[in-house]
Amino acid sequence: MPKAVKKSTKIKNFVIDTNVILYSPKALETFDDNNIYIPAIVLEELDSFKKGVDLNGYNAREFIRKIEDYRTGGDLLKGVKMESGATLFISFHDRESKESVPEEFSGRKNDNLILGIAKKLQSESKNETIIISKDVNLRVKANALGIKAEDYYHERMGSFTENKDDTLYVPDSYINTMYQESELPMPDYIYGINMEDFKPRINEYFVMKSEVDEKKGVLVKYFEDEGEVKGFKRVTEYENIFGISPANRKQKYLMEALLDPDIDVVFAIGIAGTGKTLLALCAGMYSVLNEGTYKKVLVTRSPIPMGRDLGYLPGNIAEKLDPWLKPIYDNLDFIIGNSNKELRDGKDGIYYKSQMNNITIDYLKASNILEIEALTYIRGRTLIDTYVVIDEAQNLSPHEMKTIITRAGHNAKIVFTGDLKQIDNPYLNEWDNGLINASEKFTQARFRHCTTVFLDKGERSRLATEAARVL
């Protein structure tokens, strides 16, 4: 085995795991002028994904095409210079790399082959060697071997999701004027806040209270227009939409955002039972059926199972999707049940309820008012005059989020709902998933047609709320 050499503090060697590429096929462009090593076994793994019709298949094909472009420009074994300034290498597992790891890691398992390549590179190169992987176990084994290992942090967000007080105390006269007007410029002062440091998100919601009387208050949202005028707009409080009314002020924030045609994308983030999906579907159906703002509602959700997967499901595409979409149908049944309650209160009401729900949902689908689609097949579509609801968006990667949002055509609205504490994708966490990533990037861009609403009060039941808190 070659002797260890002194490390350089300049250029680094990054050994990339397969899951990083499936997470972001453009990941190689983010390593500046360092050395990037792709183990040959990673290419083998990507080869097994490339024929898939899902987003993993697309990402694998996208990355392989990029590798082919670099291959034509030089020898990947000796290193090819990339546009980003990095140098790209392909590395093979050989006898020396096999001897670089303990006997416990000497098998043909892919992770062990990556460890062997990284350990050999570490011993031969003057540059610091780092494994980049979204697999926690691989990072642990790497550290046990004295190899530095890191998660892929390029898409990782900060503490944007931390709950903060949404209460603002302002002059009593400002509250009085806000009661009369729909919007006002910024107040002269906000109690306890340095106005120069006050930089809320565009379309961020607050409860504004009088500094002399806490019982006097109004719900508002912050705005900035094209002329850089800043201020607050009074929130429209909706009641009895299909028999459903917001149960707390943050649900009022969300309902207002969902029904505001000037907001193109809504990120509804909250714990289980806060009403995210129910309100999104309710607002979507109302926008189509009652207001005519859009022509149809398209609903889909991330098809990642909780717990052990049951394997392939029998039947046609509709039958395969049915188990994944049960939560959607449950919410639609509840909405339709509320809207038709007065028709069922009579003789044989129980029987009529069942028939009414089934016929109504089937009618909406047959009339192209309601479309329930597999997320896998949304690529390539242009969504026009459509109200889109994406449920369980916390399981999507940043690349998947980009794919979905760029489907939006003229007069389209997209609503993403998700719970950052219920991520089932093994390679995502609450800081780097697509939901929070897209939310923060739109916020940082100061896009005026976007908002994020955080919900923290469960309304499903006291049991569900307590379970979300303590378990």
UniProtKB/TrEMBL annotation:
Pfam families: PhoH, PIN_4. GO terms for cellular component: cytosol. Coiled coil: none annotated. It comes from the Bacteria. One of its GO terms (molecular function) is ATP binding. InterPro entries: P-loop_NTPase, PhoH, PhoH2-like, PIN-like_dom_sf, PIN_dom. SMART domains: PINc. Keywords: ATP-binding, Nucleotide-binding. In the N-terminal section; belongs to the PINc/VapC protein family. Belongs to the PhoH family. This is PhoH family protein.
